[in-house]
Design a protein that fits this description.
With about 300 residues, the protein is an alpha/beta fold. About 30% of the residues lie in helices and about 25% in strands. The strands form three sheets. The protein has a seven-stranded mixed beta sheet with strand order 11-10-9-12-13-14-15. α1 packs across α9. The longest helix has 17 residues. It is globular and about 60 Å long. The relative contact order is 0.13. The structure holds ribose-5-phosphate.
Amino acid sequence: MVLLGGSANPELAQNVAKLLDTKIYFPTTKFADNEIYVKVPVNMTNKVIFIIQPTCKPVNDNLMELLLMSDAAKRGGAREIIAVMPYYGYCRQDRKDEPRVPISSALVASTLKSAGVTRIITLDIHSEQQQGFFNGPWDNLYASYALVPELKNEILKDTVMVSPDKGGVPRAKAYARLLDTNDIAVVFKERDTKTKNQSKAMFLVGEVKGKIAIIVDDMIDTAGTMANAAELLKKEGAEKIIIAATHGLFSGKALDNISNPAIDKVYCTDTIPLSEEVLKTKKVKIVSIADLLAEAIEKTFKGESLGKDLIL
Ligand code: R5P
């Protein structure tokens, strides 16, 4: 096994390597004009290469690093090249839902393939049908592995799992099952098609009055979705509102939105490196998914199934 890491989230990559007790190489630097230079310092002939690189901000650079590392591995004679992408950037344009739009997620998958990637491991991809965009194995893991034990400590009375939009209902149902509650509510959200990150919580289906409401989503970007949903839940009588999201992008006015008094606590994982400001925010609690990734890498390397413990 050879472990490679890009510059997207070196801390997470290092933590995974430590858990695997394996050396990790960070083979990317930059030319003076900002072009990426890659040179892997170890032999890769006939080896299984794991490249740990979430394609988060700056998404284009991080994606390009991943492609170049994979190309280096392919040309170095690697037997298998596994892209471990805790966050898969360009996941939100995943279908042609209006004329003259790309399917960005499919383009990324086919580009990975042409750069030599033979297998993909992701965590909570935006929509599971995206796995069909890659002609090869694509395992999607779930952050519930790390988040559910934390959320269990929050459940002191009636709890309702809330999806902040209709697309997230299967996720809310899975969390409800894992947290032994059958209670689900759904916020119907409307997004402005021109300003992509602005949404409105329109109405709620389900009962939240007097309950602890846990809103689950794949990501917090500007946190507008969460702030709007939390306000609506508060208006409908929820007693406490907790947020659990896998990927903390925290862009734009995210911290302002998180400071909304309707939100009591926010859990998210370390798939994306978080700024000092986010780390200092008392409401935000970060849960690491390093051990989940390490276990997935080890099982993949040994040819074992991920299904039993890691995939719900
Ligand atoms: C959308 O479908 C996603 O699942 C998230 O709900 C969305 O991307 C969050 O964006 P924001 O935090 O900017 O509202």
